Amino acid sequence: MAKAFVFSLCLLLVFNGCLAARQSQLSPQNQCQLNQLQAREPDNRIQAEAGQIETWNFNQEDFQCAGVAASRITIQRNGLHLPSYSNAPQLIYIVQGRGVLGAVFSGCPETFEESQQSSQQGRQQEQEQERQQQQQGEQGRQQGQQEQQQERQGRQQGRQQQEEGRQQEQQQGQQGRPQQQQQFRQFDRHQKTRRIREGDVVAIPAGVAYWSYNDGDQELVAVNLFHVSSDHNQLDQNPRKFYLAGNPENEFNQQGQSQPRQQGEQGRPGQHQQPFGRPRQQEQQGSGNNVFSGFNTQLLAQALNVNEETARNLQGQNDNRNQIIRVRGNLDFVQPPRGRQEREHEERQQEQLQQERQQQGGQLMANGLEETFCSLRLKENIGNPERADIFSPRAGRISTLNSHNLPILRFLRLSAERGFFYRNGIYSPHWNVNAHSVVYVIRGNARVQVVNENGDAILDQEVQQGQLFIVPQNHGVIQQAGNQGFEYFAFKTEENAFINTLAGRTSFLRALPDEVLANAYQISREQARQLKYNRQETIALSSSQQRRAVV
Amino acid sequence: MAKAFVFSLCLLLVFNGCLAARQSQLSPQNQCQLNQLQAREPDNRIQAEAGQIETWNFNQEDFQCAGVAASRITIQRNGLHLPSYSNAPQLIYIVQGRGVLGAVFSGCPETFEESQQSSQQGRQQEQEQERQQQQQGEQGRQQGQQEQQQERQGRQQGRQQQEEGRQQEQQQGQQGRPQQQQQFRQFDRHQKTRRIREGDVVAIPAGVAYWSYNDGDQELVAVNLFHVSSDHNQLDQNPRKFYLAGNPENEFNQQGQSQPRQQGEQGRPGQHQQPFGRPRQQEQQGSGNNVFSGFNTQLLAQALNVNEETARNLQGQNDNRNQIIRVRGNLDFVQPPRGRQEREHEERQQEQLQQERQQQGGQLMANGLEETFCSLRLKENIGNPERADIFSPRAGRISTLNSHNLPILRFLRLSAERGFFYRNGIYSPHWNVNAHSVVYVIRGNARVQVVNENGDAILDQEVQQGQLFIVPQNHGVIQQAGNQGFEYFAFKTEENAFINTLAGRTSFLRALPDEVLANAYQISREQARQLKYNRQETIALSSSQQRRAVV
Amino acid sequence: MAKAFVFSLCLLLVFNGCLAARQSQLSPQNQCQLNQLQAREPDNRIQAEAGQIETWNFNQEDFQCAGVAASRITIQRNGLHLPSYSNAPQLIYIVQGRGVLGAVFSGCPETFEESQQSSQQGRQQEQEQERQQQQQGEQGRQQGQQEQQQERQGRQQGRQQQEEGRQQEQQQGQQGRPQQQQQFRQFDRHQKTRRIREGDVVAIPAGVAYWSYNDGDQELVAVNLFHVSSDHNQLDQNPRKFYLAGNPENEFNQQGQSQPRQQGEQGRPGQHQQPFGRPRQQEQQGSGNNVFSGFNTQLLAQALNVNEETARNLQGQNDNRNQIIRVRGNLDFVQPPRGRQEREHEERQQEQLQQERQQQGGQLMANGLEETFCSLRLKENIGNPERADIFSPRAGRISTLNSHNLPILRFLRLSAERGFFYRNGIYSPHWNVNAHSVVYVIRGNARVQVVNENGDAILDQEVQQGQLFIVPQNHGVIQQAGNQGFEYFAFKTEENAFINTLAGRTSFLRALPDEVLANAYQISREQARQLKYNRQETIALSSSQQRRAVV
Q1: Quick one: which of B252, B217, B232, B240 has its CA closest to B99?
Q2: What pTM, to 2 d.p., does this model score?
């Protein structure tokens, strides 16, 4: 019996020690044991005051192999997703709803009044503000109350002016605005915010903080892809979210891979599903989980030149709302008018950017922070059917997003694709030449098969709405939409990902001489010709067997 | 005895568990345990119907450290190496023979008639073909037989015209060709093929499929280097070959590192040497090993719009010819005229490419697939002695290939070198500054010494024809040709690999002040001067001890 | 008891086998277990004849995670640090002293006479030298003695001329210099050397050899950072130093990670501190440790065309001075005049370089070795207070070095920063957006806190002069200078590293709308306004709590 004990202890040690070692080796650099892929729903959920964050377990072999992590964020009406940044560049696809997103670039100017109001007013405002700040500096805190009052009035007036429209503002002459008005202008000034809506793709570089707010009338749902194996991430392959406010739970704290919290929290081995609204032990400890929390409160207060009470608020102590909070009343800040104007504004910005970039010889970030990030376009809508790059009336349509239509993607080395296949429509069998593809099923269903280098189907599944699956680089894949059609969004881990089709007018087969086909496949030349010319569609293939002459 | 059992079981577990763990850590990112290098012949062989594929075990520490894999492919006369692609960019050196290579870029036009015949004819042809295809679409399959007959006649005629030469074609006026001729033109149309011959280097990007065919009168032998640790490979460090036809064996299935075949094949632990013509168990299982094999036959047939029988042929079921097959009769397809014209054609293409690239600011792939890959030059011959970049009449010559003479190498981040040293000629001791060097011995023999950072010779060997060895980055190396001379080809894992010599006119020693040498090596100033000036050759050093005044 | 034996053997095996496995997994690609950081002094020291080399243990988790290694080199007066190169690009910061550094680029011309004397003289000299070399070739060795004598005289004369100054030289007409003088000019010719002094940063690419010499009147102290996880290093993550002279000890031979020496040296497990002046076992073995040592002596002699005795001297046999040697007398070589002229010279070079680079479209190394490395500027002084990029009269100043002011850093993908904070001055809390920061404390002390993604302080320490600590990418950090002020140098692992501040005029907080702050931190709008506007300084924050109006 003692021997048995020795033996099992031995076993235990071996499996504790070595298997742990093996587990952490599944990084893409080491080994991709892709014997079996699976389309999966998220397997971890964090409940917050005004929404929830669901994550896919990034320790799964397919995620490890592709070097990605993914999450789905649901923000309720009037919910604010607290500012955070990540160690990996990410693409966000807005599955549903409307809202506002603010990305913060330290050192960039707080442009949000100027860009929406007449520049003349903006200039006056700035001078005024400059003056006010000096007064504030000289007169100290006592003036605070009064200023705030002024500002509230100014804000109301400012909003009225906005609604009167831009035309009127431009009509106002240089000196047309009475001096008095300026005293009641709104005071708030901040960096650019961006409207987001269903179909938008937002690109966020590693280390860049962003927040978002649902000001629509339904839930705002977004799917995020983190490219953890990107060159921009110099830490390890674990996705890490750094929150700058609140007392958030770790979204990716799965399977004990991430560091255990320092205080007041036991490791939760094997517990993937977080209990919602669990008693937060941090509260008793008086320690939050955001970046401010780790600083000495006194030192932080000194650095910010505020009192320690405010510093403690930054540190998120006694905050149990988690990372998505409910805003008291409506969130009230300077916002751009929606729609056409915004689009024109962005187009102008983009033109300017491209001119700059041509002068720079295509070198992004070459001229420092100010000339690039501050004016960088971060989003593009690919939900509009008119925007389709590939369209087959009887099969479906595909829209692609790459560095040509969203230049920041060149820097991030990511691209994306959104597709809608009609019932039984077939996505031509193909392989991804230079990227992994991470596919999220927006709506509908499809039969998907993925094939490895040995000719084995490592994925053969009916994928459903809300699931996500990975098609590794170079692996063959075929997809056929189900009865409900198939609507998906695909993240690709290269700036201009492209595919090589195995059927259709641009397929591999078409590129080969007839006799090579005939010999390779042991078929007649007639059959070879059929292989080459029986399909006139390119990527979106209709399912009917009849020949068509559509070119 | 029971104790002994426990003990050995323990040991077993430890070595099974932990050593396996250690083994898979030898990726370049982790550790290079380069205590001993060795020049080796391939240690795995796959016999196919019309040739063989030999591979070097990529799990060896030196290969793992350098992040490369290598194979040698022998194609018999009239043999066709089936189309395949790899997860790693590769360089192919043609050691012997002649043939044709076709690289497939999905979406690129099928240009092979136009580029070899007059453009006027090509245009007419295209229109005709367009018309024929529409007819085909309208009239369906019945016409197939007839078309094929027409086409055969057209092909014969086409070949006659080719032999009449290009000049005559150009003399023919716009309308000079009778309408009747066009009906008998050859029909086949496919992507560019490239003639290959001894001394050619061909660059194939990751994920790009290619096939090759031996139409010469001797065996076609090629050595392939796969740069698996390239950024272009987002999978793991294992080389993977994806075949698009046939029922191939896994060329790199060594030491159980690759995934075992899903069906019908047991793991073959430790069995490096494949039995030739082994009974293929796939045949009984009815499952092939190419990419098509993994798709559902019915779905594949639907996608291709062919019958299921043809789809099954694509899947390579019941095919036991392996990856190199014997062509029935001669492989008959549109081919470019050989020699001077081809060269001129390519040069024109290259000029155009360079102009484009200058306009683009040197950004390859920046403008999408069509403008780059489709017109990209993939090969360059470095076998011609006249082409030598370094030549020493009494020692030997070296030709280099980098992104300047083959621009795609900038994109692939690879370069190459071919050298021929006369008997006793010395390759100056040197180190590779920015690349690993993987050297294949084409002919002859040499004494090679490689030195690590501790001053230890980790390779000291008489290398022979057919062997391959790795000189890791920064390691010192010296080579002296043997009695038969020394002819080699070196793959380098950086686009413009360069070396730093330790002897010769451009050596490290020459760059140092006399007194630094005198003090560092505890020698007199006179000796220091000798170190600097006793060798007037640069890299290829003659072995005689006499001083020479050649500068 | 036997059982106990089995058990402990088991344990032993498990811990030997598996823990070793775990240890080597701490590469950045795998896992960053950064639960605890620490500012540390070097923990390994090698004593040499004229100085010492101290290294930080690169196997520590923080170094492994950041992919860096570091050393501090102290060269005594008249000491020569023998030529070496490394597998990683490095930045060298000169903490103290003056000296000369020579970087060797194989194949670049030996330009050092021309650039320091009048070009007219230089031209004559070159012609003369050419002639002399030919004579040497023709007349062989007998002339050696005589030449050397001439040269010594020439050298003395040359130095006098230098001291007479450059103006005079330029006044001398084309033919003004008597023929006789030219016969007595100094003979030595070598590649460019560069003067180094306190405050200089020198960038050395991977695989590029350099040597340095202390010709000042105090110790020359330098701190080196090696970016081992750089793309330029294709070997593993271990820093490797390849010496080209002497019989050096392995500076980074810690914890048995590096390969044990082949001969005559036992593994020294756990022995971090090297005994100074230990009996060198190599002497008995007759084998050195530099790159030449590993070559066959006869073959080396043949390659260099020198006798075997000289070859043996190159191999460093019987040399026990280690890597820093004392020069006999003064090291006597061609040197540039110091100061203003040098600066002007470099500025001219830089202008030229930038013009070239604009023409090249910003593509470094695109045109081969000759046009880039040979004329590349390698150093820049950031010690001068006037050079500050950020300055706050009551807090301190910061100078940054990136690819804009030292273009080679774009190629190396490194940047740097030097800062001086006055007593109690605060470096604004911030995070590194795109780089790790490796900080060396030059003088003074500071309180430093580093915070991870869970809000835990993983570093909270009073850092002292001579210590080094790592601030990982994206981790929050705050620093407050102690009573003695705080002077530091920070290496950053990205070409244009930038930070995002959490306090100050450009902070994250300032970019957010008031109401977002109010809701996120559960504070009033007034408090939110204070958070945004209470600090007018940007990065260097003064510690006093009073409000200031300085903008």
Answers
A1: B217
A2: 0.79
d(C-alpha C548, C-alpha B89), whole Å: 60
Diameter of chain B measured on Cα atoms: 98
pLDDT over 80 at C306, yes or no: yes
Q: Are C423 and C524 members of one domain?
A: yes
Residues 410-449 of B with CB under 8 A from C: 426, 428-436, 447, 449
ipTM above 0.85, yes or no: no
Q: Which residues of B touch C14 (CB under 8 A)?
A: 14, 18
CA-CA distance, B116 to B345, in Å (whole number)? 9
Residues A208 and A60 in one domain: yes
Cα C51 from Cα C323, distance rounded (Å): 9
Bigger pLDDT: A482 or B358?
A482
pLDDT band for position B352 (cuts 50, 70, 90):
low
- State whether residue A239 sits within 8 Å of chain C by CB: no
CA distance A465 to A478: 18
Same domain, B322 and B198: yes
- What range does the domain containing A456 cover? 383-549
Does the pLDDT of residue C167 top 80, yes or no? Answer: no
Domain for residue C356, yes or no?
no
How many angstroms separate the CA atoms of B50 and B75, rounded? 6
Q: Kindly state whether residues B314 and B389 are assigned to the same domain.
A: no
- Tell me if A148 and C525 make a contact (CB, 8 A cut-off): yes
Q: Which of C516, C499, C530, C472 is nearest to C34 (CA)?
A: C472
- Between CA A530 and CA A507 the distance in angstroms is 13
Q: Is residue A4 part of a domain?
A: no
Tokens of A519: 């010999």
Which has the closest alpha carbon to B71: B63, B82, B79? B63
Interface test with C, best of A304, A310, A367, A376 (most C CBs within 10 A): A304
Predicted pLDDT at C429: 96
One-character DSSP codes across C355-417 = HHHHHTTT-TTTT-HHHHGGG---EEE---GGG-SEEETTTEEEEEE-TTTSTHHHHHT-EEE
- Both A389 and A509 in one domain: the answer is yes
Q: State pLDDT tens for residues C472-505.
A: 999 999 999 999 999 999 999 999 898 999 999 8
B547 pLDDT band (50/70/90 cuts)? very low
**A300 in the same domain as A417:** no
Shortest CA distance to A502 belongs to which of B89, B104, B370?
B104
Q: Is B406 a residue whose pLDDT tops 80?
A: yes
Q: Nearest-CA distance from A205 to chain C in Å?
A: 9
CA–CA distance, B10 with A546 (Å, rounded to integer): 65
Taking CA–CA distances from B334, the nearest residue in chain A reads A513
Task: Inform me whether the C-beta atom of residue C207 falls under 8 Å from chain B C-beta atoms.
Answer: yes
Question: Does one domain contain both B306 and B420?
Answer: no
Number of domains present in the structure of chain B: 2
Q: How far is C61 from chain B (nearest CA, A)?
A: 14
What's the average model confidence in pLDDT over A334-361? 56
Q: Give the separation between CA A104 and CA A209, rounded to whole angstroms.
A: 5
A505 and A395 in one domain?
A: yes
Give the other-Cβ count within 10 Å of C246's Cβ: 30
Contact in structure between C209 and C56 (CB atoms under 8 Å): no
Between these two residues, A111 and B388, which has the higher pLDDT value? B388
The answer to the question of residue B259 being in a domain is no
> Mean of the per-residue pLDDT values for chain A?
76
Whether B263 is in a domain gets the answer no
Q: How would DSSP label each residue in A272-335?
A: -SPPTT---HHHHHT---SGGGGS-HHHHHHHHTS-HHHHHHHTTTT--STTEEEPSS------
- State both tokens at A409: 């993607």
CATH at A500: 2.60.120.10
